[in-house]
Amino acid sequence: MTVAEEGRRALAIVERAYRGAVETQFSDGLYCAYLFHRHLGGLDVLLRGPAVGYAVRAARTPVPRLGKRELTTVNTPGDGLNVLLEAGVGVWIEEQDLRAYGPDAESGLLPGVRTVPAGAMAARWPGYRAVFYL
Amino acid sequence: MARPTTVPRSDVLLTVMGAPYENDLLTSVLRLSQAMLEGGATVQIWACGYATMLTQRGLGDSKPRNLAAWEVDHPSTSLLVREMLLAFPDRLRWYACRFCSDDRGAVDHIPEVPVRAPARFAEHVAAADKTLYLGVM
Question: Which domain of life is it from (chain A) (predicted)?
Fold first, then answer.
């Protein structure tokens, strides 16, 4: 890392909505973003494509019962995003994909998530120390 | 003539071909199994491919700690499978494919999960009234 890169954030682009609810639990891409935020000295996350659903409030799904256990620790991307927001991660979402997600998507957006026109984030890439998919 | 089999009869055989950590296939497998078992059915699961990683002893009982929720315990898939087997004795069985296990170095399964040679897969199919294949390799 050069001196000029110190203090600049990295940008992680998340496109692939993915859960693996039972085996992944908390250790999903958003948790990886949390670790990168801590260890890289600051991170922004851009949600695109199906991953915009992470930032839209959804009805709670039933807790899976496996054997005699109620598995309460399956991953919930909305909670993962809240952890990121509380930690100071900038969470952005592409407007076009948010609209495509559904008519109620914009009104259900989690507080703290900021919208950006499709493709506009690319103009900001030079301001980041690194840009990568997550 | 088919040789005698030691595979216990089951209503359903679920053959898990698809990999975990990619989508919610495993969640579907476990929820489907639970629902059938609660309905009184007998179920056997044959784990192929990367599904053989789910019952490794090296996973322990818990996932690594969550730095954002240090006190919360997250059970490993090995523990979840063992708990399901204990909850439904003699009605749920979980087998691991030997070739797929060897191919991935997944050679240390929990003791509740027998390892079976792929040559015996046909016996497991024959021992089930219905076989479902879930996911692709």
Answer: Bacteria
Taking the model in full, what pTM does it have?
Answer: 0.90
**Residue ranges per structural domain of chain A:** 3-133
What mean pLDDT value characterizes chain B?
Answer: 95
DSSP class per residue in chain A: --GGGTT--EEEEE------HHHHTT-SHHHHHHHHHHHHT-EEEEE-GGGGGGGB--PPPPPPEETTEE-TTS--HHHHHHHHHHTT-EEEEEHHHHHHH-TTTTTTBPTT-EEE-TTGGGGGGGGSSEEEE-
Distance from the A69 Cα atom to the nearest Cα atom in chain B, whole angstroms: 8
DSSP letter at B11 equals E
Compute φ and ψ for B11, nearest 5 degrees. -70, -40
**Chain A interface includes B72 (CB < 8 A):** yes
ipTM: 0.91
Contacts of A21 (CB under 8 A, 6+ apart): A64, A74, A75, B24, B27
Distance from CA of A24 to the nearest CA of B (A): 7
Whether CATH 3.40.50.150 fits A3-133: no
Assigned CATH class of B10-64+72-134: alpha beta
Sign of the CA dihedral with B117 first, then B112, B61, and A54 last: positive
- Is pLDDT above 90 for B122? yes
